[in-house]
Design goal:
The chain is mostly helical. It has a domain at 20-63. Helix content is 78%, strand content 0%. Helix 3 crosses helix 4. The longest helix has 19 residues, at 23-41. The mean pLDDT is 96.
């Protein structure tokens, strides 16, 4: 299943952002944060990603 296609029906920005957003810039920053979590807390890649995702979501909720 193409989840990006499914989600982009509800959130059209997911279909469009790669044309306007400097994804390389943000990808590098995200990768650095994942690597920092892995190194500092001895996490595997999946756990580091889940922790980062959870932190990002909590910050999003604070903005609402």
């Amino acid at each position: 299943m193409d989840w990006n296609k499914v989600w982009s029906k509800k959130y059209p920005i997911l279909k469009e952002y790669e044309k306007t957003v400097d994804t390389i810039k943000y990808s590098k920053q995200i990768n650095n944060m994942i690597e920092d979590l892995k190194n500092e807390y001895n996490l595997n890649t999946e756990d580091a990603m889940l922790v980062l995702k959870d932190i990002l979501y909590k910050e999003y909720l604070k903005m609402k």
